[in-house]
Amino acid sequence: MSSGITTKTKPTIKLISISYNRLSRNDIDSIVPIEQQNSHNPWSKNQLIESILNPTNLCYSISIKNQIIGFLIAMPALDTADILNISINKAFQGKGYGNKLLHYLIKELKDRMISQLILEVRVSNQAAIAFYLKHGFEEISLRKNYYMNNSKHPNQKEDGIIMRLKF
Fold first, then answer.
1. Alpha helices in the chain (DSSP H)
2. 52-60 contacts, C-beta under 8 A, 24 or more apart
3. Which residue would you say has higher pLDDT here, 149 or 52?
4. pLDDT at 6
5. d(Cα 72, Cα 81) in Å, to the nearest integer?
6. Section 49-67 average pLDDT
7. Is 132 a catalytic residue?
């Protein structure tokens, strides 16, 4: 007769080294593929470079072990900032990295005495809308035919929802 002993152990927790950095032109080859994999109408390499080189824009990356897994570009103006672009590598989506990057931006904005964040999102981008609603954004307006290329119907324009977060 054998007796079995069962022991419960706590799961091992691996700490992941996450860093936030200001984007530079040197990061362009890391962020272009992320932008291309996440958008039906991705920004061009030149658009990304121009945004990064614009000294008034806030351009940040989120990295794990020195590998960029996402980026964010925002444009501050007085007490408001607009998110122009936010994107996380598909392999890292759904793991909280978008949340972390957004919270990093909000902390930076609060430090600059900026009290609200605005963005536009395609009406068809339900995942992004849900993400922003989860973070306290509210829908404040609709821009009819705002996006030139509709992700589902290429010959039609697509509406954009304007969302705002006050903090």
1. 28-38, 45-53, 97-111, 126-134
2. 52/23, 52/24, 52/25, 52/27, 52/28, 53/25, 57/84, 58/105, 58/108, 58/109, 59/22, 59/23, 60/20, 60/21, 60/22, 60/23, 60/101, 60/104, 60/105, 60/108
3. 52
4. 52
5. 12
6. 97
7. yes
Cα separation of 161 and 139, whole Å?
Answer: 7
pTM of the model: 0.86
3-state helix, strand, coil in the chain (%, to 5): 30, 35, 35
User: Is 167 in a helix, a strand, or coil?
Assistant: coil
CA–CA distance, 53 with 33 (Å, rounded to integer): 19
pLDDT in tens, 76-99: 999 999 999 999 999 999 999 999
Q: Is the pLDDT of residue 9 over 80?
A: no
- 84, 57 in Cβ contact below 8 A? yes
Exactly one of 20, 104, 108, 120 is catalytic; which is it?
A: 120
Q: Which of 97, 132, 147, 158 is catalytic?
A: 132
3-state secondary structure of 71: strand
Closest by CA position to 167, among listed 136, 128, 134, 142: 136
Catalytic residue at 50? no
Alpha-carbon distance 30 to 47, whole Å? 15
pLDDT band for position 8 (50/70/90)?
A: low
